[in-house]
C-alpha cells in the first residue's frame, strides 16, 4: 500500500472512531473491511487501527480477530483471553459493559480457555497502549501550556518538563520496540507488550502529576485513558508478569536472543 493510500485509510479509520465506539465501532470497522485488511495487510492494519484506538479513546472487541487469525480461525467471534493474576476474560462482541475498572468495556471473567498463540495479540495491544500513552501525553502537554502559575505557564517549570520528557522517551522507546517486532517472534512480542505496558503506566503516573487535581475529575478525559491502560496492561499478561516471564526464559536458555540487527 502506497503512502497516500495509507494516509487516506488512517483518516477514514480515525473519523470512524471519533463517531462511534463499542459494538457500533465494531460494525463500522467491519464495513470498512477490517477483516480483509487483517488478512491481506496485517503489518499495516494492526499498528494503524490499534494505535488509533488508543489516540481516540474509542474501543472495539477487535483484539479477538487478531488472536483468532493467529490461531487459524475465522474472525468475527470472541474467545477467552488470559488476564493478569492467572484469570481469564472474554471481550464480548456485544453486550452490556461489565468491567468494574473500565465501565465502558464488555469484559467478563470466564473459566480458563484453550491455549492459542497470543504473540500477535500482545503486539496489537502494545500499539493500543502506545496510542493511549500519546493521548495522555497530549492532554498533559496542553494543560502545561495553558495553566499559568506565578505569572508563567507551568510548562516552563523544570520539574514539569522533566516529567513530560520522561513520558515521551518511554512512549518512543515502546514504539521503536514494536516497530522492530514481528508477530511470528513470540519472545519479541512478549517484550514489546511489556515495554508498551510499562511505558503507558509511566505515562499515566507522570501525566496525572502534571494535570494535578483536574486529572481526577469526571469532566477530564485523563481518567478514561488511565482506566483503559490498566485493563490493556492486564490483558495477555501484565508488564510485570511478562518481564518476569522473559527473565525466566533468558535464565533457562542461558542467553538472550538478538531482537534487532543494529
TrEMBL record:
Keyword Flavoprotein appears in the UniProt entry: yes
Coiled coil spans: none
InterPro entries with a match to the protein in the record: AcylCo_DH-like_C, AcylCo_DH/oxidase_C
Domain Acyl-CoA dehydrogenase/oxidase C-terminal: 118-237
Signal peptide: none
Domain of life where this protein originates: Bacteria
Statement: the UniProt record of this protein carries the keyword Flavoprotein: yes
Annotated GO MF terms: acyl-CoA dehydrogenase activity
SUPFAM superfamilies on file: Acyl-CoA dehydrogenase C-terminal domain-like
Keywords: FAD, Flavoprotein, Oxidoreductase
The protein, known as: Acyl-CoA dehydrogenase
Organism: Mycobacterium lacus
Amino acid at each position: 500500500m502506497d503512502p497516500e493510500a495509507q494516509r487516506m485509510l488512517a483518516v477514514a479509520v480515525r473519523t470512524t472512531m471519533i463517531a462511534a465506539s463499542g459494538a457500533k465501532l465494531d460494525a463500522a470497522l467491519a464495513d470498512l473491511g477490517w477483516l480483509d485488511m487483517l488478512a491481506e495487510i496485517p503489518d499495516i492494519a494492526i499498528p494503524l487501527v490499534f494505535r488509533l484506538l488508543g489516540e481516540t479513546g474509542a474501543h472495539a472487541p477487535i483484539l479477538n480477530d487478531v488472536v483468532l487469525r493467529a490461531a487459524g480461525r475465522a474472525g468475527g467471534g470472541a474467545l477467552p483471553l488470559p488476564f493478569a493474576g492467572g484469570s481469564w476474560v472474554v471481550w464480548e462482541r456485544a453486550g452490556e459493559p461489565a468491567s468494574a475498572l473500565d465501565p465502558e468495556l464488555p469484559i467478563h471473567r470466564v473459566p480458563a480457555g484453550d491455549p492459542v498463540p497470543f504473540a500477535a495479540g500482545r503486539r496489537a495491544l502494545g500499539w493500543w497502549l502506545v496510542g493511549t500513552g500519546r493521548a495522555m501525553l497530549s492532554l498533559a502537554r496542553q494543560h502545561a501550556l495553558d495553566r499559568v502559575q506565578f505569572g508563567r505557564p507551568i510548562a516552563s517549570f523544570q520539574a514539569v518538563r522533566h516529567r513530560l520528557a520522561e513520558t515521551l522517551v518511554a512512549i518512543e522507546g515502546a514504539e521503536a520496540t514494536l516497530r522492530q517486532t514481528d508477530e511470528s517472534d513470540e519472545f519479541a512480542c512478549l517484550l514489546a507488550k511489556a515495554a508498551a505496558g510499562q511505558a503507558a503506566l509511566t505515562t499515566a503516573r507522570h501525566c496525572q502529576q502534571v494535570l494535578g487535581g483536574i486529572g481526577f475529575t469526571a469532566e477530564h478525559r485523563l481518567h478514561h485513558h488511565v482506566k483503559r491502560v490498566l485493563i490493556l496492561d492486564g490483558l495477555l499478561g501484565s508488564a510485570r508478569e511478562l518481564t518476569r516471564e522473559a527473565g525466566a526464559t533468558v535464565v533457562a536458555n542461558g542467553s538472550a536472543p538478538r531482537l534487532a540487527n543494529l
